[in-house]
Design brief:
It is a single chain. The protein has about 150 residues and is α+β, with helices and mostly antiparallel strands. The protein has two domains: about 1-60, no CATH class; about 65-145, no CATH class. The chain has helices at about 30-35, 40-45, 65-85, 130-145, and strands at about 1-10, 20-25, 45-50, 95-100, 110-115, 120-125. The strands form two sheets. It has a three-stranded antiparallel β-sheet with strand order 2-1-3, with helices on one face. Strands 4-5-6 form a three-stranded antiparallel β-sheet.
Length: about 150
């Protein structure tokens, strides 16, 4: 027999942080056939997920991608250095760095600095590139990290 954790799924689709109950059974279906019918009606109508106790219990939103975190940190450090080099007068003002494609960048993709709050273009920090993928690849090359999921 194995131990299982049953988690309630909330209406917003997120799973509870802690298990509602833990039980011992051969299969997780035991929860749905024997445990769930004994609960109050409001719990019987809820969605549930049952996970073996020896499996990872983190919710999908809690799992951190260390490679993505390192990429973001190095990207932000690089962009900060580029802003300090190319726009030294911005040190005291509120500005942000971002990837832009608009008339200011001649409808090409570029890493830019913009005013905080308004996102008004101040200047380019990178070359102007034809596609978003090229701009992301440029950044990956600059920081020396290949990301696992280039969509984020």
């Amino acid at each position: 027999m194995s131990n299982w954790n049953a988690y309630k799924i909330f209406k917003n689709g997120k799973r509870a942080k802690t298990p509602f109950t833990t039980f011992e059974a051969d299969k997780k279906e035991f929860f749905f056939s024997d445990v769930l019918p004994t609960l109050d009606k409001k719990f019987q109508n809820a969605e549930w997920v049952v996970i073996p106790e020896d499996a990872p219990q983190e919710r999908p939103t809690e799992i951190r991608n260390e490679k993505e975190d390192m990429f973001a940190k190095k990207r932000n450090n690089l962009l900060s250095k580029l802003v300090a080099q190319k726009f030294p007068t911005l040190r005291q003002s509120s500005s942000i760095t971002c990837l832009m494609c608009n008339e200011d960048t001649e409808w090409k993709w570029a890493w830019c600095v913009a005013e905080g709050g308004t996102h008004r273009f101040i200047g380019c920090l990178s070359d102007k590139l034809e596609t978003r993928e090229e701009a992301v690849a440029w950044m990956e090359n600059q920081v020396g990290i290949q990301r696992t999921n280039p969509e984020t």
